Each structure stands twice: as structure tokens, then as C-alpha cells.
Amino acid sequence: MTRKFILFLASISIASTAMASAPATETATPQPIALSAEDDDDDDESLFWWSAGANLASNYLWRGYDQSYYGNMFDPAIQPSVTLGLGAFYVDLWYNYSTISTYQELDMTLGFDYENLSITVYDVWCDYGKAFWQNDFLDDENHSLTATIDYTLFDRLRLHWGTTFLHSADWLYNEDGSKKRRAFSSYFEIAYTQPVKDLFDIEITAGASPWTAPFWCAGPRKMVDGGYELDFDNIPQGFNVTNLSLMITREFEVGAATIPVNVGYTYNPTTNRHYALIKTGFSF
User: Fold this and answer.
1) What average pLDDT does the structure give for the chain?
2) Distance CA 275, CA 263 (A)
3) Of all residues in the chain, what percent carry a pLDDT higher than 90?
4) pTM of the model
5) Domain at 237, CATH number
6) Total of domains in the chain
7) Distance, CA of 13 to CA of 6 (rounded, Å)
8) Per the domain annotation, does 151 fall within a domain?
9) Confidence grade of residue 223 (pLDDT, cut at 50, 70, 90)
10) Which 8-state DSSP code applies to residue 13?
11) Strands (DSSP E) along the chain, which ranges?
12) Could you give the angle at the alpha carbon of 114 between the alpha carbons of 112 and 119, nearest 5°?
């Protein structure tokens, strides 16, 4: 555990050193301007907003794990989404289909996003193999309920915390196999973004499980039937670093559409797995 913690602190130190070169004061956020009565209708219309898009990624990585859980370096994923908003509040539907592992996920999110603060509560449905409409969507074993909070400092340093409150596998057990208590599996992350002129952004991320997290934090397993698998039967205990990553992002504007291009590298010290990631898509 000590070695993992030192590794995590070293990553934070890199981000902190980079932050020292950032402007000392946070960029001021424009304040809302008072509207006259004749502007009320336009203001009401501006409260409603929407966006839609889709990504194509070389792999679906989450918290330092590829979601096929087989250590695949390459598992192309299609990820469409749509968002409807009212002021600072929004609802979002996001879907993933991994083409090789056939891993599917549907995230249904209720969020609040204002200035530097973002809060979400989201339900995650996931399964393998069957087409989405052939699954039992109401099966609680396929669902989890998670809440997250993000806060950004200096417009560059993002602090993230997420805790799972409901999932059928999110339990700690006594030695006799009986349930002890809910684990409330959690994840925290520190990410620093550095713009490089007007060319691209570089993001450095360090993420970890602060305590035993049976819902999502798995340990490595030896080769099984000629392939690599993760071991959810022997959950890593205590504090575990799972996500050390470097991402380069560039966005292109084409008409009303935004086209992001991401190239990155991720290392998961808990499983000792390395990943390269290429992702692009569009949104409008």
C-alpha cells in the first residue's frame, strides 16, 4: 500500500508543479446581466438547451479499467449521447457498445453544472452479449446508482469524487460469507489541464480507490484459457491507485459541429496494465 500511495502522490506532485505555472488568479466568470421586462421571453427561451453527439473510441476506459475486463488494448466502442437542459440542470442519456467484447452500457444522468461546480446522480445499466432490447432492463443486478461531484480550480485543476450507493455486488462480507455492510465503493481523481498555445490541451490525471471497492476495483488474474482476466473474487484491499493517464485533446469547429480528437496513454498500477487510447467524434 505504501508504494501505491507514494506513486499516487508523485502523480499529484507532477500536476501541482504544472499548476504553479498557471495564472495566480482564477479567470473571472461573466456575471448575468439584469433583463428588462421586454427581454423576459428571450431569456426564458435561452434557459432550454440541448446537445447531441457520438464518439468512436479505440477502447472504453473508465477509472483506469477497460470495460471488457479482459485487459484488451483494442476493443472499439461506439458511444452516442443526447442531453436536454434547463438552465444549470440537465438530463443525459449515454450509450456504449464495445464491438469485440460486446460490452454494453447505458448511463442515465441527472446533473447540475454551474460555473466551476458539477454534481451528478446517475444510474448505470450494463451487460454483455445480448442486444439491448433482449435484456431484462429491470434486473437490479445490472444497475448501479452513483453520485459524483467535480470542482475546478484556476480553470485548470479539476477535483473529482464519486461514490456508489446502490449495487447488488457492492458489499463487504464476514469470514462466514454473510454480508457485513455496504462498501460504498468510491473513486477520487485529480486532473490538471495545460493548454499549449492554440494547438491542443494536455491533461494529466491521477485517480484512486480510497478504500476497498468491490463494485469496480478488481485485481489482476493470471492467464486463463489463453487470455487475461481480472479477478473480482479477490478484491484489492484498502487504498489502490488505478488510473495514471496523459491525454492530448484538440477540438475542431466545422459549421455548427464540434469534432474533438483525443490521443492518450493510461497505466493502471493495480492491474499493471497499459493502454493507448484514440478517440474522436462529433457534437452539436
Assistant:
1) 83
2) 11
3) 58
4) 0.81
5) 2.40.160.40
6) 1
7) 10
8) yes
9) low
10) H
11) 48-57, 61-62, 65-66, 77-86, 89-98, 103-114, 117-128, 143-153, 157-167, 171-173, 179-182, 186-196, 200-209, 219-220, 230-231, 240-254, 257-268, 273-283
12) 35
